[in-house]
Every structure is written in C-alpha cells, then in structure tokens.
Amino acid sequence: MSLTTAPTLTPSKSNRSSLRWALSDVLTIARRNLLALVRIPTSLVFAVIQPVMFVLLFRYIFGGVIHIPGVDYVNFLIPGILVQTTIFGAVGTAIGLAEDLQRGLIERFRALPMARMAVLGGRTVADLARNVGVVIIITFVGMAVGFRPTGSFVSYIQACLLMLVFAYCISWGFAFVGLAAPNSETAQAMTFPLIFPLTFASSIFVNVPSMPAGCSPLPSTSPSRSAPRRCEGSCSAAPTVPPPG
Amino acid sequence: MSDYAVEALDIVRTFKDGEVRALDGVTLRVARGEVFGLLGPNGSGKTTMIRILSTILKPTSGTATVNGIDVVKHPDAVRRSIGLAGQYATVDENLTGFENLRMIGLLNHMDKSLVVKRAHELLEQFGLSDAANRTTKTYSGGMRRRLDLGAALVASPPLLFLDEPTTGLDPQSRQDLWAIIEGLVEGGVTVLLTTQYLEEADRLAKQLVVLDHGKIIAEGTSQELKTRLGNTVLSVTFANTDDASRGVELIRELSPTPAIIEGTVVDLTVDRGPAVAADVLRRLDGAGITLAGLALREPSLDDVFLNLTGHKAEDITEFLADEAPASRRGRKART
C-alpha cells in the first residue's frame, strides 16, 4: 500500500480570510450538530413531540381552569410554550457539549487549525436553527388549536425574532453548564435546577398576580417571564400585557 | 528549519499545582520519515507528551518544535502540519464515516471538492467504502480506529501522532492497523506513536524511548533495548519457596540481569534460551531440586520494566486517574 502524502502545509492566512474561515468552521460544526439532532430520535422527540403535547395539555386539560384577565388563554399559552421548548432544547446543548468533551472529540478539534470559537459558535447556531423550526411548528400547532395573534404579520415576525434572540442567549448559558460538568449525566442533572424555575415556576402558563405574594418574586424576575409577555405584546394589536405583578 | 520532525527539549508538565509531575524533563528528537515509539505503561506520561506536541496542552517548562515550528508560539501553524489520532478513536457517532472525514477536512480548511475526493480515497484505502454512508455508531472497534486514522490523514500532514493506536483491538484488527501504518511510513510520513505493547513498538518503531513516571528510563533502537534486556525470558517454577531460594543461588549467574523472584517463580532474562534452559535443568537436578515448571517466552513490557526499574508496570496505577480521560484534564489545567 502506498499513500501520497506530500508535505503540503496550508499557507498562513490573512485576517480577512481568517474571519471567513471562522464562519465556515461555525457552519461545519453547526451542520454536524443538526445532523445529530435528526439522527438521535430522543432529541427529535424533545424538539417536536414534547412541545405539541404541552400545547395540548395546557390548552385542553388545564386551560379550562386558568383565567388570564383580558387575554384568550391560548394566546397567552403559545408564547410561553415557545420559551419552554427553547429552554428544554438548550438542555441538549449542555449534554451534547459534555459528551463531546468526555469522548475526546473537542480534544481532536483543539488539534485542528480551526477557529477556537467555532465549537461553541457552531453548537449555538445549530440551536438557533432548531429554534427557528420550533417557532414555525408551534405557530402552526397553535393555530390549529385556536391561537390567533391579534397583531399584524410583521409584529408577529418581530415577536418571533425576539424569541429567537432570547433562546440564543439561553443556549450560551446552557453551553457553559455543559462545559463545567464533569460528564454528560451530571450535565443533565445540573440543568434541572435551572430549567425548573425558568419554565414551571414562571409566568409561562399562568400570570403572576394569581400567585401568592410570597411566590411572586421569582417568576416576576425570571427572564422567561418577560420574554413571552414581550412576544405576546407584539402579537397583539393593543398592549394587553398586564404590568409586572 | 530544524532537521527533526519533532524536537522536544527538557519538557516538564505538572498537574495539580505541581503535585503531579506527568513529564519530568523529557528530551526527544524524531528524525523525518521515521517511526518513533514512546513506550510505557498507563500514566507514564506518553499521552501528556503527545498532547503537548499537538498543541492541546502547554508545557510547564521546556521547548518543543514540530516541523520546525514552536508549539507554544505558533500553535496554529503546528496544527496545520500534523495529524492526531487520539487514544479513544474520537469519531462522531452520529455522523457517517464519510461525513466524519468531510467534517475534519473542512475544519482543516481544505478545498471542498478536494475534501470529498480525499475522503473517498481514504475510505477506499482503509476498507471502509461499504460502510461510508453508515453512522459510525454501527462500526466495530477496528473500523472506528481505521476511520480515526483516516481523519488524521485527511489533510495529508507530513507528521502523524498516534496515541495507542491499537489499544483495545482484537489481534486481526491490530495486524490490519499495523499494515496501514507501515504503508504510511513507506509513503514518507513521520510517525510518533505511543504504545504499551513491546511487540507493537518492536514491529513499527525504529527508535524507542521508554517512559516511566514522566522520565526517560531507556532509549535506543528496539534491537538495542532487546539486547540490553536479553532476547528470552526463562521462567522457572519451583515446587516450594525453600527450593526457590536454594535454587535461585545456583542459576542466578546464568543471566546478565538480576533474577526476578516472585513466590516460587524465578524469571531469568537470557540471550540463548534453550542452551540456558538445559544448563538450569542440569544444575538444579545436580542439587536434587525438582521443578514444577519451566517455560521460555518473549520478553514483555513487564520484563522491560522489571529490568529497567525494578518495579512492575502496573504498580503505578495511581497516575491512571489523572491521565484519562485526557480531555477533562486539559480543561482543568487551563482554568
């Protein structure tokens, strides 16, 4: 067996082309993570089936007993589901990064001439792409169960963009958890104390004034309180959002 | 530009604030086009050395150049001139064999069309064409190692680092991988490999360095090491410990190196096995000692270690927890 391995060193790069390569590296890593998303059935379940189940659960099982003054509950619920789904999705980021570290894949990346930031940049860009999908799916599922944004189409798009910015920030937070965890199992456990207050103990499903006074500081300061309410505000023609409780 | 593919001078690397000295002043020079072997048990510092040379880890002190480039000052240029296949066959399980190679090629900033061509070439070469479009989750251990090696070769680097390339492989896969590595060397690639197996070092590496506790305890060609060690180990099993202590006095002088006594078993390292075996039998028979067993075998890494250091290779497992998995270690060291 003979191999043609002429010592061909890549020429060193100028600043402009190094930015171009950094972008290319981010896309290469993002593509890798998106392929994994499609190929691991559980991650697809978390991304698609679970949020649909939550929509149905709160729309039809619990929704009947939740009354939000001035808003149709389904219009209150859908932005909240979007926030919840992106946060749950970010858990996958933490686990995935911890796994990459554990298996030595990041070690291999570090011995390549790629941009250092592409490992995290690619991961979060993949999250962003996934979240675009989530927004589209949840919007249509929401429509099917009675979600009717009252604002213009443009303001709905703005609301979605705001949601994606919020989700992108959350991705980086969970990426940090994944890097700090000693292994993927611990990474998963470490995310739980984060996702619980960010999702369930928040105003995603109910509004803050309905809670006992002692409970309200947490949900009313939670980032996942303001994000869905902001979106809801953009969804509606009139500012129907109740002031922070 | 340095004449050596790798030149490492007095490399020290400590962990845990200096408590653990993984490398304690290692100097090595790898000539272009040769296969250089780092031999040693787990925790001897082999992987740490590879990680420093592949720019993953910075040395605590000492300097190293790879292809003439300083690893600390110009890590990016070093990365463009090396290929690394780590200890754990680090392929992405969710990607196919082809996708893995394409990803590594693109991250090496190769031209897209060239990457595709090169990926297919390597898959073909390593007998993975049929499995090219299967996710590597379904690959056997040997297939993963071959793909891992392929990934290290995508950018056609002139220098390859192989960290225990055959650890955990079955004998057939090991033979296959050895043949592949030999083929690469014929093609002009310089290889620095680590191994725990004397047999592997013997077959592949021209120059060898034996590491123990982060220090070089022996170096030379494998032939030199073997000569120093003797070519055969004669293992004499006595019926009881009394016989053993009496008998060892009679046969001790037959070996150029000290006899190693463990219970009723006495190991002698000798050059001419059969002749010495006959001599051993005559002497012990003359003294009226009956043997429980007598065996001739090839020296193992254990024998090298017992001879060079007086302790067994496995005795230093306290380092094991620090060495693996390597990736965790690097991050700790950076923070």
Structure summary:
The complex is a heterodimer of chains A (245) and B (335). Chain A is an all-alpha fold.
Describe the structure in your own words.
The complex is a heterodimer of chains A (245) and B (335). Chain A has 245 residues and is mainly alpha-helical. Chain A has one domain. Chain A contains nine helices and no strands. Chain A has helices spanning 15-39, 41-62, 73-103, 105-110, 118-144, 153-180, 184-199, 217-221, 223-235. In chain A, helix 1 crosses helix 5 (118-144). The longest helix of chain A has 31 residues, at 73-103. The radius of gyration of chain A is 21 Å and the shape is globular. Chain A starts with 14 loop residues before the first helix and ends in a 10-residue tail after the last helix. The two termini of chain B are 33 Å apart. In chain B, 48% of the residues are buried. In chain B, strand 7, helix 6 (171-186) and strand 8 form a beta-alpha-beta unit. Residues 314-335 of chain B have low confidence and may be disordered. Chain B has a six-stranded mixed β-sheet with strand order 6-7-8-3-9-10, with helices on both faces. In chain B, strands 2-1-4-5 form a four-stranded antiparallel β-sheet. In chain B, strands 12-13-11-14 form a four-stranded antiparallel β-sheet. Chain B has 335 residues and is an alpha/beta fold. Chain B has two domains: 4-91 and 139-226 and 317-334, 3-Layer(aba) Sandwich (Rossmann fold), CATH 3.40.50.300; 231-298, UreE, C-terminal domain (Alpha-Beta Plaits, 2-Layer Sandwich). Chain B has helices at residues 46-53, 75-79, 97-107, 112-125, 141-153, 171-186, 198-204, 222-229, 241-251, 273-286, 301-309, 320-323, 326-334; strands spanning 4-15, 20-31, 35-39, 61-66, 69-70, 82-85, 159-163, 190-195, 207-212, 215-221, 232-238, 260-262, 265-270, 291-297. The A-B interface holds A 1-10, 12-13, 21, 24-25, 28-29, 31-32, 35-36, 39-40, 101-114, 118, 179, 182 and B 51, 54-56, 67, 76-77, 79-82, 84, 86-88, 90, 92, 94-95, 99, 103-104, 106-110, 125, 135, 151, 153, 155-158, 179-180, 183-184, 186-189, 325-328, 330-331.
